[in-house]
Amino acid sequence: MPYKILKKIRLGNSGTLYEIDIDAPLIAMKAFAGNFVLIRINEKGERIPLTIADYDREMGIITIVFQVVGKSTLLLSHQNVGDEILDVVGPLGNKLHIEKYDNPIIIIGGGVGIASCFPQAKELKQASNRIISILGARTKDLLFWKDKMAKVCEQVIICTNDGSEGIKGFVTYPLRKILTEEKISLVIAIGPMIMMKNVAELTSGIEGLPKVKTNVSLNTIMIDGTGMCGGCRFPSKDGEIHFACVEGPDVDGHIVDFDILLNREKRFTEHEKKSFELYKKECKILKEFETN
Questions:
Q1: Which of 14-28, 38-52, 114-128 is predicted least confidently?
Q2: What's the CA gap between 2 and 62, in Å, rounded?
């Protein structure tokens, strides 16, 4: 059964970030922070994992946020309200463990990972936790959901690489400062692999800083989302193999061998680039044909 798009919003000022609401009552009924869905736009499309950024059980709606980085996300950005997505499978993955912590929680979102932070902050806030959020992006045009995060966080700190908004620099700068000033129960980092690596290193007890439990969200390659294909496998530092789709996507950031994952991310770079260019060429030809 196809899934209808109910709402579509362009986020930020970059022109590459989108938020869409999908009519999926059965998924919304079972969705929690940390869950994701596998989407296939049409019969020729690939399966791509996208985190459930929000859900409304009464309305039967799930919200996803994505950035155009390749063919599938570009195709998804061309869908409009009323259009249908062929497959939306979920909720998959493990939901976030929720409890009342004695000390504050720091939730760090980088780029499109900001969307995945919201349901985690919302559910932890509902458990009466104090939450500090650090949101980072390359530039202010890639920032979004600041007001939405402010509603569920005691404090929101903004960082941009170019200094166009908030603190100039990486999210690790305010994180380091907070870790020296107060005791933290949990750190959650969701975003680019290199960002999560740097956060996990900083909370591992280096340079005299306290060691703090740290969760990272591994958005690796996935095909079936049930642990059968092995595409999402990731190694721990002790050499054991894990599967992000069934053991995560939120996992202990201190056990992940990020160096291997960073190398694996580059494996299909050329293939993705070629597919992206071919699709853009196809769109251009189709547009010219329809115009004539």
A1: 38-52
A2: 14
Question: How do residues 76-111 score in pLDDT, each as one tens digit?
Answer: 999 999 999 999 999 999 999 999 999 999 999 999
**Most distant CA pair in the chain, distance:** 68
Ranges of each domain in the chain = 3-92, 105-217
Q: Which of 15-19, 80-84, 143-147, 287-291 has the lowest mean pLDDT?
A: 287-291
CATH architecture observed for domain 3-92:
Beta Barrel (2.40)
> If you average pLDDT over every residue of the chain, what do you get?
89
CATH topology of domain 105-217: Rossmann fold (3.40.50)
CA distance 160 to 84: 35
Say how far apart CA 238 and CA 223 lie, in whole Å.
26
Three-state DSSP string of the chain: CCEEEEEEEEECCCCCEEEEEEECHHHHHHCCCCCEEEEECCCCCCCEEEECCEEECCCCEEEEEEECCCHHHHHHHCCCCCCEECEEEEEECCCCCCCCCCCCEEEEEECCHHHHHHHHHHHHHHCCCCEEEEEEECCHHHCCCHHHHHCCCCEEEEEECCCCCCEECCCHHHHHHHHHHCCCCEEEEECCHHHHHHHHHHCECHHHCCECCEEEECCCCCCCCCCCCCCCEEEECCCCEEEHHHHCCEEECCCECHHHHHHHHCCCHHHHHHHHHHHHHHHHHHHHHHHC
pTM of the model: 0.88
